[in-house]
Amino acid sequence: MSNPLHGLPFLPGTSFTNSTKTAFHRSQTLGYRNGYAIARRPTVGIGGDRLPVNQLSQADLDELASKTPILTYGQPRQAPPADFIPAHVAFDKKVLKFDAYFQEDVPMSTEEHYRIRQVNIYYYLEDDSMSVIEPVVENSGIPQGKLIKRQRLAKNDQGDHYHWKDLNRGINITIYGKTFRIVECDRFTQEFLESQGIELNPPEKMALDPYTELRKQPLRKYVTPSDFDQLKQFLTFDKQVLRFYAIWDDTDSMFGECRNYIIHYYLMDDTVDIREVHERNDGRDPFPLLMNRQRMPKVLVENAKDFPQCVLEISDQEVLEWYTAKDFIVGKPLTILGRTFFIYDCDPFTRQYYKEKFGISDLPRVDVSKKEPPPIKQELPPYNGYGLVEDSAQNCFALVPKAPKKDVMKMLMNDNKVLRYLAALESPIPEDKDRRFVFSYFLATDMISIFEPPVRNSGIIGGKYLGKTKVVKPHSSVENPIYYGPSDFFIGAVIEVFGHRFIILDTDDYVLKYMESNASQYSPEALLSIQKHIQKRGAPTAELENKHIDVDPGVQELEALIDTIQKQLKDHPWKENMLEAFQTCDKEASGYVDKEMFFKICDSLNVPIDDSLIKELIRLCSHGEDRINYYNFVRAFSD
């Protein structure tokens, strides 16, 4: 019925009551559809009157929304708040479902080590509670069903609880110490989470329980028995054994060696054992067997590499191929349990068996004896320049070096035999032209010493120029030095001593006698030059006499005594002023002082003249009965 008062003007203070209105009820705002409570907004007011809030059309509402009537009408009233709908009403009977699983250890079983248990996780949106239910499997023997009853579940130690925002596919959640892996969810859950702006992970494949899958396989597998008769093999080949001789070469590893073994192959059951070959006093424990008698696998199944052979016996299920008699061939290597043996020989029965069974008639013995390697040639390190080459080389022969061996017979035959030569120094310096040197070649040791006689007013202190040593020829190599010998000394020969060149001018008479008695060592030209020179002079050279050069063995004794005194009395303080004291008394610079003055000077300098060596030195330096050559005496106390 239409309102009869519609269109009447309302004057201020007046109103009209519709006497024809009989319905004063309010519109229904709560209803049920398919069993769910649904809230709906009323479109009419009390008695069916249209509500003022819905008088405008959508176009009018859009036009008003685009304008700002605040300046004209002032601040608008706040829109009425949306109707409050409680969660237990909005999310009543709305549940999220997730498929998950967890792994459980099985410690007391030999058939399975762990178990996979599949569960369903339910999340109730109305009160944010969760429950975990495991589907019941018939005859599983495991308490199943509701694992965790419906409740709010703690997420961490701070008291936070799991929310539907924390759930997703492909994640792990921990509930009461158990870790669940969520792999999938139903369609309603997927649509709900995506409508709330959550990006779902891709679904995963549900893990299967290995023991349950094993139970699905057939209980029995029937295998057709082989036609091979093991009893016939036992009766035919009983007590028939193939014997092989092998070696195991482990010399490539540290402390490894080459060891001998005997390999037995039993034809009756195709088993193998390996025996060690012991020798007397070989230092090894007397174990007869390296490997007990057993069947040897040749090719294992791919999954049987980790088979615990130390605990369980290996069977045909783990082996594709076993070792047979045709695998043992003389002259070929054989790997058994990771150790490679080389078969080098077998016994006559084995040769006859291979000839009859396999037609192999040629099984020669292989020589495995190792030949001693040739000795390594010892090469000396480069010469460092200190001492003689022979002395330095002794450090390479022994940890504690010993003195090189000497030719004792040569030393006994040539004892006290010395060849002396007079030589001049070849030098561009004018002061060196008049210097003369006495070369002493000791035949017992092949050493050379050089002595320069002191010359008065020459400005050069004479004395020992070079101690006894071997002199290397200038063009010889350092590793193989060639020393000067007696054949290199003759009149006019040039002798180079450590960079200094000397020319031989004269010799003593003993040199000619030695050269004539050993003419094979000298060239004819060298021997002829010495003979002509001796014939020309007819006597010892005047130069040697004027220079007071003693060519008798006393010079050698004096040089040896001076060396001994220098080693024993080298640190005495009075040696520095000794020469100056003697030169002060020798006003003529003759090099000689009388004995009385000599002993006074020695007494003032506290020289130990009572020493036996000093007494012998005074005797050798005495010239006549009352004169002493103090140059040689002072030389014994100088550096």
How many helices? The count is: 17
Mean pLDDT: 83
Give the helix proportion (percent range): 10-25%
CATH class of the largest domain: Mainly Beta
The backbone outline, from C-alpha atoms, is elongated
Distance between the termini: 154 Å
Give unreliable regions as ranges: 539-552
Query: From the alpha-carbon coordinates, what is the Rg to the nearest angstrom?
Result: 62 Å
Strand order of the largest sheet: 6-5-4-3-8-7
What is the fold-level CATH name, i.e. the topology of the largest domain?
A: PH-domain like
CATH architecture of the largest domain: Roll
Counted beta strands: 25
Structural class: alpha+beta
Count of discrete structural domains: 5
Determine the strand fraction and express it as a percent band.
Answer: 15-25%
The description of the largest β-sheet is:
6 strands, antiparallel
Describe the structure.
The chain has a six-stranded antiparallel β-sheet, covered by helices on one side. Helix 14 (578-585) runs antiparallel to helix 15 (595-604). The chain has 639 residues and is α+β, with helices and mostly antiparallel strands. It has five domains: 1-72, no CATH class; 88-215, Roll (PH-domain like), CATH 2.30.29.170; 230-357, PH-domain like (Roll), CATH 2.30.29.170; 407-545, PH-domain like (Roll), CATH 2.30.29; 554-635, Recoverin, domain 1. The protein has 17 helices and 25 strands. It is elongated and about 185 Å long.
